[in-house]
UniProtKB/TrEMBL annotation:
InterPro entries: Beta_galactosidase_Trimer (IPR013738), Class_I_gatase-like (IPR029062), GH (IPR017853), Glyco_hydro_42 (IPR003476), Glyco_hydro_42_N (IPR013529). Residues 427-578 form the Beta-galactosidase trimerisation domain. This is beta-galactosidase. Keywords: Glycosidase, Hydrolase, Metal-binding, Zinc. PANTHER family: BETA-GALACTOSIDASE GANA (PTHR36447), BETA-GALACTOSIDASE YESZ (PTHR36447:SF2). GO terms for molecular function: beta-galactosidase activity; metal ion binding. Residues 9-385 form the Glycoside hydrolase family 42 N-terminal domain. The keyword Metal-binding applies. The lineage of its organism: Bacteria, Bacillati, Actinomycetota, Actinomycetes, Micromonosporales.
């Protein structure tokens, strides 16, 4: 089943008198799912009272109109009585400043940002509320899935990205326990952090950016801790209702900039859930960049690791941000293109934020598919048209086909940039620039997390792997990459792989972690540059290396004759950063040169089975394959350009709604096509 839905209820929005009418309009428009928020502070105003009146009525209305319900349980808005009981459980920043409960953008009904769940009494109260809600609705015929954590991250960071959380007493105690389990003795910790503590009581998390080793561990602790918080929510939900699926969804990808401040790494948040999702607000936050939107979808798919994933929130209307930065309504064809992107990326659900604009709160009156009074707009018509495509049995029963080109991302490299630069922007631009260069050639990209690769190896279906800004590496990752190259995989890395160890210390020999033998080179020196372009058209920025060859061949040289691109078997090292150059200026020369380096000898960089080939490959053209249970293929082709685009097919396929098989198609401007193997 493919889910098409919209968020509807977040108290105190919308008006009760409109509920029946609005849910009926949703169903008539072709939507099958509605999301309802179960907000802790709103529903439990006193310790002994849980008010189910709103959700009871909404669940019954959803059933009446044939809508499945996603219940989003919201614990990030704690009841005010609990804050009175537990005044030490407020989130504290690095200067011990508390965040008092208040109304905010994502909780207009108050209670944000909740209290720190490391406090045992806070968690006990939250678990009791969660279990009560799940027990109430587990047998309701409208219930479809439990979304147990809306956009998991360290909640206050969304409003205070210049501060670091959380330094409350309970979190400090858990951090010390985590350190003892990780390092066992103070002497081992001293060796890792380059310190001279004499007792565990002296150890404290960092409160300045320049403390690199401890900042890396402080953030790593919080990745583990938030995963622990998620596991507890899932356990409570499954105990109360073992019969329904449990999911969570993140706000964007951590690798687009929120990884360090928000402690958001989606790859750590999929283990205990049955399904996963991501939020996207492309007009509001991405300047309608289809590549950044697709990156968020591809990272969600990569994190889900074969589990179903949704576009769990997608913008429905205008956005408000810092007054002058507010954005207009997306056009109907843009709304349709977001849905086409979701289909192409392999999503199994699309849920809009939201059906109608809210009437109270900082988001008012934004983000709705409808007008503020609930009247459907042309954007609703676009959703209706794409819902018909998504609900077609051939599409609805298909799953994403894995790509053969990998993009290797590293949380430790992002954290190192954050700890040293006070910002992970440099790493963000490298990852997005590399991804853009790949998808602008219509490569079917799999985003691979270095920790998963270190543990499990490079997946067998990956033929070529690009490694942008490979600042940190472990010996386990190096071993996995060696095994990948040994089996014939093509590895292309940017400058200075493994320059830093996992604690942020610069290694004396680069490439580090044993990677020098893999690439057949040694770095003699490195320097900062503005930009450089090689005769092949390949451009680089920020830094270039002076390399000495130790077994590798020089494929291309800088103007001074030193190697710019070195090849050792199927391992290639580029002595600068094409990702940063392409992020700044996405030029055809860099795009083509990278495709050549990733390609097997005398062969194009290939997508799986080369299902569809564009007559002219230009940025904004994407095609991805999906597979039905019987093995038949579904190809989704998306055209973000302003002109119709021709493409040829590797086999006869039937356009959805077409009269018969074809071997070539024209994809309309700013639209898409689904093609089905007969």
């Amino acid at each position: 089943m493919f889910v098409i839905g919209a968020q509807y209820y977040r108290p105190p929005n919308p008006p009760r008198e409109d509920w029946d009418r609005d849910l009926g309009r949703m169903r008539a428009a072709g939507l099958d799912t509605v999301k309802l928020w179960a907000c802790w502070s709103w529903m439990q105003p006193t310790p002994d009272t849980v008010d189910f009146a709103d959700l009871d009525e909404l669940m019954d209305l959803a059933a009446k109109h044939g809508l499945g319900v996603v219940v989003n349980t919201i614990l990030e808005n704690a009841p005010y009585w609990l804050a009175q009981w537990r005044p030490d459980a407020h989130y504290l920043d690095q200067e011990d400043r508390p965040v008092r409960l208040t109304a905010a953008m994502n909780t207009p009904g108050g209670g944000w940002p909740g209290l720190c769940n490391d406090d045992p009494e806070v968690w006990a109260a939250a678990a009791a509320f969660l279990g009560t809600v799940v027990g109430r609705y587990r047998d309701h015929p409208a219930l479809r899935v439990w979304d147990v954590w809306n956009e998991p991250h360290l909640e206050p960071a969304s409003y205070f990205p210049d501060r670091i959380y959380c330094y409350c007493p309970a979190s400090l105690a858990r951090f010390r326990e985590w350190l003892v389990a990780r390092y066992s003795t103070v002497d081992v910790l001293n060796a890792a952090w380059r310190r001279r503590y004499s007792d565990w009581a002296q150890v404290d998390p960092p409160r300045l950016f320049e403390a690199v080793p401890d900042m890396l561990d402080w953030r790593e602790f919080w990745f583990d801790n938030l995963a622990h918080w998620l596991e507890r929510r899932v356990a409570v939900t499954r105990e109360a209702d073992p019969g329904h699926q449990v999911m969570t969804h993140v706000a964007l990808s951590g690798f687009t900039g929120q990884l360090a401040t928000h402690t958001l790494d989606e790859y750590t948040l999929t283990g205990p859930v049955d399904a996963f999702g991501t939020s996207s607000f492309p007009t509001w936050l991405m300047a309608d960049d289809p590549v950044e939107h697709l990156f968020n979808l591809d990272t969600a798919r990569g994190a889900a690791a074969g589990k179903p994933f949704w576009q769990a929130e997608i913008q429905g209307g205008r956005g408000r941000r810092d007054a002058a930065k507010s954005t207009p309504h997306p056009t109907p064809d843009t709304v349709g293109l977001w849905m086409w992107n979701s289909l192409a990326a392999g999503a199994t659900g699309v849920v809009f934020w939201q059906w109608r604009p809210e009437l109270l709160g900082p988001e008012s009156p934004g983000y709705g598919l409808c007008a503020p009074d609930g009247t459907p707009t042309a954007r609703v018509d676009a959703v209706t048209a794409l819902a018909a495509v998504a609900h077609d049995p051939a599409v609805a029963e298909s799953a994403p086909s894995p790509g053969n080109v990998g993009l290797l991302v590293s949380r430790r490299s992002a954290l190192h940039a954050f700890a040293t630069d006070r910002d992970m922007g440099l790493y963000r631009e490298a990852v997005l620039g590399a991804y853009r260069a790949l998808v602008d050639t219509d490569a079917a990209v799999e985003v691979l997390h270095d920790e998963r690769v270190a543990a499990d190896g490079v997946p067998e279906h990956i033929e070529a792997l690009y490694w942008p800004m490979p600042a940190t590496a472990t010996s386990a990752l190096a071993g996995a990459l060696e095994a990948f190259v040994a089996r014939g995989g093509r590895l292309v890395a940017e400058a200075a792989p493994g320059e830093y160890d996992e604690h942020g210390a610069r290694r004396p020999s680069v490439p580090g972690a044993g990677l020098g033998a893999l690439f057949g080179v040694r770095q003699v020196d490195a320097d900062i540059i503005d930009a450089v372009t090689l005769p092949s058209g390949l451009s680089g920025r920020w830094q270039r290396e002076v390399l000495a060859l130790h077994g590798a061949e020089c494929v291309e040289a800088f103007a001074d004759g030193t190697p710019a691109v070195a090849r050792h078997g199927t391992a290639v090292l580029i002595a600068t950063y094409p990702s940063l150059a392409y992020a700044a200026e996405p030029d055809a020369g860099t795009r083509a040169a990278l495709a050549d380096l990733l390609a097997a000898p005398s062969r194009e960089l290939a997508r799986p089975s080369r299902e569809l080939v564009w007559a002219e490959q230009v940025p904004g053209l994407f095609s991805r394959a999906r597979v039905r249970p019987d093995g038949r293929r579904v190809v989704v082709a998306v055209n973000w350009t302003g002109a119709p685009q021709k493409a040829t097919l590797a086999r006869e396929l039937v356009p959805l709604g077409g009269s018969g098989p074809v071997t070539s198609v024209v994809v309309p401007a700013r639209s898409g096509l689904a093609l089905v193997e007969p």
